[in-house]
Every structure is written in C-alpha cells, then in structure tokens.
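Hey, I was hoping to borrow your eyes for a little while. No rush at all, and the record is pasted right below.
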Amino acid sequence: MASKEDLLKQYFGHSAFRPGQETLIDALLDGRDVLGVMPTGAGKSICYQIPALMLPGITLVVSPLISLMKDQVASLCQTGVAAAYINSSLSYAQYLEVLRRAGRGTYKIIYVAPERLSTEGFLAFAESAELSLLAVDEAHCVSQWGQDFRPSYLKIAEFCAALPKRPTVGAFTATATDEVKRDIVRRLALDEPLELTTGFDRPNLFFSVETPASKDVWLGAFVAGRAEQSGIVYCATRKNVEKVCESLQRQGVAATRYHAGLEDAERRANQEDFLYDRARVMVATNAFGMGIDKSNVSYVVHYNMPKNIESYYQEAGRAGRDGSKAECVLLYAPKDVRTAKFLIENSEENEALTEEERAAVRERDLARLVKMAGYCKTTDCLRRYILQYFGEKAPLHCGSCGNCCGKLERIDITTEAQKILSGVTRVERKYRKGLGVTLIVRMLHGGKDQRVLELGLDELPTYGILSELDRTTIRRYIDHMIEQDYLLLTEGEYPVLRTTEKAKDVLFHSEQVVILVKKREEPVKTKQLAEADGGLYAELRALRAEIAQRESVPAYVVFSNATLQDMAAKQPLTYAGFLSVNGVGTRKAERYGAVFIDCIRAWKDRRIEGS
C-alpha cells in the first residue's frame, strides 16, 4: 500500500503536509476519534481523505450543503479518487444507483446530507456496508452555541450507535470557541478524541474596516479596481442584496445574487454562474457560502456588519482558500449594530431548544454583537483582535491589516466631547430614565425627526450644537467616549446613554479627549499578476478556462490560482518539472501536463523572439 506521503503527492499534488494534518491522519488511521479545528484553507478535507484512501471499505462524510458535496466530489474525481454524494438533488433512481455501486465497492468516499442518516433505506445500506470512517464536516453545526446550529446534526451520534460496528469518527470545523468544542465532543459522542487546534491565523488575508461616506460609491470603486478578480459581497438583508447587485450591474460588473427569497432554480443557477466564473461577483446574504469550495475568491467585502466574530471570520475566510493573497473588508456604519440587534431579537425560534435555552442563546448572541462592534471600532491590530477572541496569543502589530498599515491621525475632539457631554447631561435632567444613542445623536445634530420634536429635544440649549458634523461622525465620537469611560451605555433591551464620574474632568477641568482616525482613502487598484510576469499567468488562466469549459467543471477544479502562480514562477518545460509545481499531482500531470507545458514553451519562445 502506498504511504500517506505518496498519496498526498499523487492525488493532491503536495510534497509535504501542513501543520496538524499528519497528526490527525495518524490518529484516524489508528482508529482514534478526532476533533480538528483548522482555519479555512488549512486543508481539513485532506485529514479524512487520505485515511479514506488507506482504510478498507467506505468513508462517509457528513456535509451540510449540496453545493459543497458537488464541489468536493468533482475535485476528487478530477484527481482520480472514486467518490459520490447522496442528497436531495438526486432522483430516486440515481440514489439507488449510487447505493448499488457503493455495495460493489466502487467508491472510497461518499458525501451524505445529515438528514439522510435517519432514513430507513440509508440505514439499511450502512448496516450492511463496511464503514471504516465517518467524517463530520462543519462540525460546529451540531452545537447550539455555534453560529450555524442545525438540529439534523444531532442525529449523527444516534446513527453511529445503530451500526453493527461503530466507525472511527472525525469532526472538523474552522471556527469553534472552547465552549463549542466541548459541545461538539458531547453531542457527537466522540470517544476520548484527539483534539487539535492548529491556530486561527490566515496570514494571506488582509483585514480592514472602512467607514465610507457612501458604501455604494466605495464598493463600486473597489470592484472596478479588481476587474480580473472574483469576489463575494455579503449583505445583512435581502433588500440590500438586491440594491447592491443592481448597482454593480449598472456599472457593467458581471454580478449575481443569492438569498433565501429566490426560487431554488435561480439560486442554483446564480451559484453555478459564480463557481464557473461567468459572474465574477456574488452579492449574497449569509445563506450563501458555508462549504463553498471556490478557491479563487480574491476578496470578501461585508457591506453590513455581521452579528458575531465567528460568522465574520468564517465568511471572510472564503477569500484566499488556495493560499493566495486576498482582502477582507468590512464596511461599517453605526446603524449596522441596530440592524444586527434587530435580526438577533427577531430570529426564528429553534424548536429543538427549550425556552430557557433560547433565552441563553439570545443573551449570548447580544454579547457576541458587542464584540463584533468592538472589532469595527478598534484602532488596534485587527488580526490580533480576532485571534484574541478565539483565545490565541498574537503580537501587538501584525504589519498586514488596515489598522497596522493604515495612516492613523490623532484628532483633538475635546470641544466636541464637551458639547456631547453637555447634551447628555441636559437629556438626563429632562428625562430621568434617559434616552438612547440614536435620539441623542439626532438632537445634537439638530434633526427634525418626528420623535425628536415630540420629546421636545429641539427646545434644549444643546439642540443642533454639533450641526456642522454628520451623524456618523457624532456617533463615532460617542462610541469612543464610551470606550474611554466618559459615557456609559446601559444594559437591557432599551439601553440609554449616561455620563460617568470621569465626564467631569472633560466638562470642568479641560481634560483633553483625542481620537485616532484612519485617513479616508479611495480603494487602491490591485496589481494584476499578469502585469508582473509578462502575461504568462494570464495565458495559463485562459488555458485553464478553456479546459474547464470543455470539461464542464469550475476553473479552480482544474488548477487553483495558487498553482497557476507557482507554475508561472517555475515555468516548467518537462514532466518532472511540472510535477514540482505545488498542487500538481500525478493524475493531473498526466491529464494536463502536455498542454500547459506547450503553453509555457510557446510563451517563452515569443519572449525570446521579441527580445
């Protein structure tokens, strides 16, 4: 039998394992349960695919989304691994055919939807089949404390217990706090598992937070500067998805949309347009993405702030899956916090939870929202903020995020702070119960909103005292003053703004209040690799697109962007040289080596002739 190192190179084109992979693989081969927490792009799937090739019988992979199964199976088949999937996209005849072939030993890996496990027909198949390994992808879905809890995942442990011989179980996820990890072990009934967290850092991702005056104008310029790149734009609501998608399309961008309000057929068609690069920008709610294995996403922009760091990191992590440099930008506005809070408080109740559990989940979600808002407001290192949230140590400065690389300027806002504190003090005197931030901002700005006039806020001496500033700036100053303990935002369903003892130092003793603000700049156009290597990368991309179209697979299934970049750098002219390219395995070298080498040779010949 081939060694795990040989299989890694033969099927996946890598000459060495990434951190944590070999440890998890060895544990599964020894029959020990595992829980692997590895960031997106770190190679979780190889941790169960290599054992699947080495163990007897079949490996079942429980996966939450049809799109993920199709992508994974297409990629495996391209590399020469016999794989199939079972989900609702198959007709009954197709489903029976997969089971018939599986019974004959055709497949080494079968992807299955969690709902399928509890069906009588599938259980009968599983009881008679030789199942050596059960891998649970997106394992955080089993935890009520995770951001994507799915009740169907709770049936996995019951399924394993019903089998004549329990298979080894491997659970894998990209985002899990300590609380979620404990819940995964308990709910999947993992038996003294090897737990391994390789770290959450994604060095290839550049994180930044922007607060543009107009999100639409900023986004249009950003996308226009990345004309050859594929990206995702996440919006909090369906309404914003429609608006943003139409705006990009009017600018001539090949954009499409995805949200739960669309018909299934349109969602599938739009998703395929994105996966096959017919649409280079996907505008979507968080209904899109979990398990999307598109490796050539160069940027993810959040048009609205997500509800928690877990969701943000998972969604942003869909950029740069192949290890290429990628950008993760969050466009922040204070009203995003109100939108997120509304979505939390009006989320669909989960019938699998008790009333007490629902209350606990809601309280936890609101606490997570505070942390998410903190990420948007901090002037410290953004990467450090994320890693510390997940319990990891990190240096003070990463040197590659918007805050570390951005130009921050110190602004003295003492006068503005005094006016804000005076306004809050006046409100406290007039309304003993206090008022929320939004109304106070409108009062200070001099707004004529109906509620402002009804409450008589226009009669206060501080009404319109900051009319020269826009509301977003006033809100940013208030947020900063809350962080610095000059103001307090109370807890509860209807939080109100209060002054603190420390406010007196600013009001009566002229204590200076300074805020660090990132200089507002237009989005920078990224340098295309085609310009850097004289056009070879562009020619390799064109050849890949031609092959992908002919074989009816997404382009990244042929080769990832990272593989093409390495190919453009090494410029191999022999079969052995082609095999040295990272991401090129034996099967793909045999299948595509000749045409790519011909492309490289022709390009080099033209360069020589032109020199």
Notes: The chain has four domains: 4-197, 205-407, 410-518, 529-610. The chain has a mean pLDDT of 88. The CA atoms of residues 459 and 539 lie 68 Å apart.
